[in-house]
Structure formats: structure tokens, C-alpha cells
Design goal:
Layout lengths: L9 E6 L2 E2 L5 E4 L5 E5 L6 E9 L3 E11 L12 H4 L9 H19 L6 E6 L10 E7 L6 H4 L10 E5 L7 E3 L10 H14 L14 E8 L5 E7 L6 H11 L5 E6 L13 E5 L3 E5 L2 E5 L9 H15 L6 E5 L5 H7 L4 E6 L2 H13 L5 E5 L2 H4 L2 H7 L4 E4 L8 H10 L3 E6 L2 H11 L3 E9 L9 E8 L2
Parallel strand pairs: 4-6, 7-22, 12-13, 17-18, 17-20, 18-19, 20-21
Antiparallel strand pairs: 1-5, 2-3, 3-4, 5-6, 8-9, 8-11, 9-10, 11-12, 13-14, 15-16, 21-23, 22-23
């Protein structure tokens, strides 16, 4: 006999009381269980659809918003209901910052049970719109039907789309007319290419059938005026050069134009040959007089304005002296290492990705920095006695790991080698607080400060400084 599907459970009239990591609001139900709710804020009263129900907690999303919290405002983007990118647009910016500060402090005080350390005020972003220096758009034959379209009986266009993936969907793309994340001419370039492709019948990529030409569009910009465009294609097309020439003619500000033929089933370009079509092979970014090359495959902080605030905070927390040796773990393209280098004797940067280390070495030469050594390796294997024997013990350790935080072996190695000071940069305060709790036996948390790199989202960057206990 076939098993009946469980009926969807809806909990009515839930009053949300607190904010949690990943931007969810939560409350405690009468039976003591904690309920986390997506797309809600403290003060909302909602009927909640339960998505996951465990012994001690449940996850859900708003089914019906019965009463909106007084702090809610109207989102400023026309695509807000469908895009899913800037999920906190319904909060004014001051409230976003207050919640981000609270999430960080809760991660340390309530989750990791660390009740020491001064909490410095969050560094808000200016500007808080058009702040990104990189966006990637996707072409698809599978256009997302918007909520507004689904609620009417009007005929719906089956035109292909160029925009962002719909939430939790690999195939469906939300057609974007105007995005508030990247300054012009990013919107104009995207809309021009979309119109040109439709007018000239250049096929969009079908991610299910793996057919079609136009696949992805990457726009990179810099505060120095650099503008890079990368057009990814699933196959060659006879109008490829005419399309690229038309873009150049319409947007002469493009200083670096590339294309790539990516015939793989996934969109990643790190293993692809990206071809320079016109202009320079890279653009440059400048932070406090330091110059960084940005090539098509380079990693760079996507908010240049706040990257500068972040790096200045790392430098302040590091309290460097001329004789200090610094280890910069998870160095990426070496931007933090180079930013610190002139204030100390030596910086050793370690990074798993060979291309990133190649960029780091180029950036060091570009800035006439000769006291940085950049090594390719997995930190959990590279941070060992041989490294210490070669470069000496680190006085200051800078950590900027992925969202998952530190591997257990790395924590053990840090405790064994015991640098005097640790500056820990994290995009995930929950795993950061967990790691600092593991280091707590030997390290005192002095202070920490959040830096808002991504306004109108719940993402948070946090910088903490620890010192070795006497």
C-alpha cells in the first residue's frame, strides 16, 4: 500500500521575537521548541509553514503575514519578490546594521559562551547601493514566472531570460531589468546584450539540454574606472564577433573584453581558457595607494569600499612592529598580506588555489613589496614544524578562512605554535565564535568589530583580535 504524504503543517498566529544567524527570525513555541522562520523579522505575526520539524527546533517560512512588524519598509527593487538576492530590503539600513551587530554578539556570547572582549560598533557601508565590483548574470531558455505574473490570467511571455537564478533553482532565471548592486553601465550592458541577442536570434543556453550559445555574463569594475566584461558561451556561434564588436561600440568604457567557450555542464570558469578579445588583460583596483591586478579568474573582495575599511581594521588589530613575522593563512590573492607588509619584517601567505598565489606574487611585485612569501598548500598540512623552521615563529597570525571556519587540525597547530596575537577575519560569525572558543584555553579575546560588506543582505564580515594568555 502506498504511503500517504504528510500533510503540510501550518502554525497560526506566530509572533516572532528575535533575530538569528542567516537572517531568520525566531521565537519559542509554548511547548519550548524554537521555531526559525525565513523572510520574517522580529515583530511580525504570521502563519508559518513548517519545513523541518525536529525534537528541539523547527524551521519554517511565512505562509501568510497576518501583521507586519512596525520596522518593515517597502523594498526599493522591483525584482525583490522573485530574485531572492537582497533579502533584507524590507528593513531600513540602520535596522539592518543593528541586527547584524546583534547576530555577531549572540554568536559569541550565547552560542560560544565567550563573555569577554569589547564589542566595537559595526562599520556600515557607504554607499549601500551599487557597491559591488563584480556581478555574474546567467542566460537561460527557462525564464522564471514572477509572482505577479502567476497571480494574473494574462498571457505569459516564453522569452528567454538574462538575470539571476531564482531561489533554490538551477534552471529558472529571473529576468532582471535593473539591479541596484553594481553601478552603471552594468545594467545598460546586460540589457543591451539581451536585446541584441533577441534581435539577432542568438540562442540562449538551455541548462537541461546543454544546447545554445550565450551562457553567462560577468561584469567587473573598479573604483579606478576599470571595466571588464566576460561573455561565457556554451558553443561557438557565427555572430560571436559581431556581438562583441557591437558591445564595444556601444560601451567604449569597457577596457577589458573577454570571451570563453565553456562546453562543460557546470558554469565554473577556473579550468577554462578565457580569451582576451579586446583591451587589457586585466583591470586594476587601488586601496590606500596599493594597486591590485584583477584578471578574469582573480578573487577580490566584491565591495572595494568596504574592503579598504576591513583591511585598515586588520592592520589596526594586528598592532604590528618592525621586527614582527606575520603568517597570513588563507591569503587568497595576497591583498591583506601586501597591505600589512610594509609594517613588519616578513609576511608568509598560504593559500590552496595555485592561481590565487600566482596573482598574489604579481600583486606583490606591482606594489614593490619584497618581504612577502606566498606558498601554495592546504593550511592544515602546510602550517607545521617545517614551516616554522623555515620562516620562524609567527608573532601575528591572520586568519581568513572559508565559511566553514578552521579545520580541527589547524586549531591544534595554532595552539601548539602559540603566536602572540591572532587577527581572525570571518564571513560567518557562528563558526568564528566556535573556533575562538576552541582557542580560548590559551587565548583571550580582546575585541571584535563587524564590517558590513553586503548591505541589504544578512551576510556579515567580522574581525576579532586575540592575544596569548600570560
Amino acid at each position: 500500500m502506498a504511503r500517504k504524504k504528510n500533510r503540510k503543517q501550518i502554525i497560526p498566529d506566530v509572533t516572532l521575537t528575535h533575530i538569528a544567524a542567516e537572517g531568520k527570525a525566531f521565537c519559542r513555541l509554548p511547548e519550548g521548541k524554537v521555531l526559525f522562520v525565513e523572510d520574517a523579522v522580529p515583530g511580525d505575526v504570521a502563519d508559518v509553514l513548517v519545513l523541518k520539524n525536529k525534537k528541539d527546533y523547527a524551521n519554517g517560512r511565512v505562509a501568510t503575514l497576518q501583521k507586519a512588524a512596525s520596522q518593515r519598509i517597502a523594498p526599493f527593487c522591483a525584482h525583490f519578490d522573485d530574485c531572492g538576492g537582497c533579502k533584507w530590503q524590507y528593513l531600513n539600513y540602520a535596522q539592518q546594521l543593528a541586527y547584524k551587530s546583534q547576530i555577531v554578539e549572540d554568536s559569541f556570547r550565547r552560542i560560544a559562551k565567550i563573555n569577554e572582549g569589547k564589542v566595537l560598533p559595526i562599520l556600515g557601508a557607504e554607499p549601500n547601493r551599487y557597491y559591488r565590483n563584480k556581478l555574474e548574470f546567467t542566460f537561460s531558455t527557462h525564464r522564471w514566472i514572477t509572482k505577479a505574473e502567476a497571480q494574473t490570467d494574462a498571457p505569459v511571455s516564453d522569452a528567454p531570460a538574462l538575470g539571476f537564478h531564482a531561489p533554490q533553482s538551477f534552471y529558472k532565471i529571473v529576468q532582471i531589468d535593473h539591479c541596484f548592486l553594481q553601478a552603471e553601465p552594468a545594467n545598460a550592458i546586460r540589457n543591451f546584450i539581451y536585446a541584441y541577442a533577441i534581435a539577432h536570434d542568438i540562442p540562449f543556453y538551455d541548462p537541461r539540454a546543454h544546447t545554445g550559445c550565450l551562457r553567462n555574463l560577468i561584469v567587473r569594475s573598479s573604483t579606478t574606472g576599470g571595466l571588464m566584461l566576460i561573455v561565457s558561451m556554451g558553443s561557438a556561434h557565427p555572430l560571436r564577433e559581431k556581438l562583441l564588436d557591437a558591445v564595444l561600440a556601444e560601451f567604449p568604457a569597457i577596457s577589458s573584453l573577454h570571451y570563453v567557450i565553456n562546453e562543460k555542464k557546470n558554469d565554473t570558469l577556473y579550468d577554462q581558457d578565457i580569451i582576451l578579445y579586446a583591451g587589457n588583460a586585466y583591470i586594476t583596483e587601488s586601496l590606500d595607494g596599493y594597486v591590485f591586478k584583477i584578471s578574469p579568474k582573480s578573487f577580490f573582495q566584491t565591495n572595494s569600499y568596504q574592503a579598504l575599511a576591513l583591511y585598515r581594521k586588520v592592520l589596526e588589530f594586528a598592532a604590528l612592529e618592525a621586527q614582527h613575522t606575520v603568517y597570513d593563512l588563507y591569503t587568497g590573492t595576497g591583498s591583506i598580506a601586501i597591505f600589512l607588509a610594509k609594517h613588519c619584517r616578513k609576511v608568509v601567505g598560504i593559500e590552496l588555489v595555485p592561481d590565487a598565489i600566482a596573482d598574489a606574487k604579481e600583486n606583490a611585485l606591482l606594489n614593490d613589496t619584497h618581504n612577502c612569501d606566498f606558498l601554495v598548500g592546504d593550511v592544515k598540512n602546510t602550517l607545521n614544524a617545517d614551516l616554522i623552521a623555515t620562516y620562524g615563529k609567527a608573532d601575528v597570525l591572520v586568519l581568513d578562512p572559508p565559511r566553514a571556519g578552521l579545520h580541527g587540525d589547524v586549531v591544534e597547530q595554532i595552539l601548539a605554535f602559540a603566536p602572540q596575537r591572532i587577527v581572525y577575519v570571518s564571513c560567518n560569525p557562528v563558526t568564528q565564535a566556535r573556533d575562538i572558543a576552541l582557542l580560548h584555553s590559551r587565548y583571550e579575546l580582546l575585541q571584535y568589530q563587524a564590517v558590513d560588506m553586503f548591505p541589504h543582505t544578512y551576510h556579515i564580515e567580522n574581525v576579532a583580535v586575540l592575544v596569548l594568555r600570560e
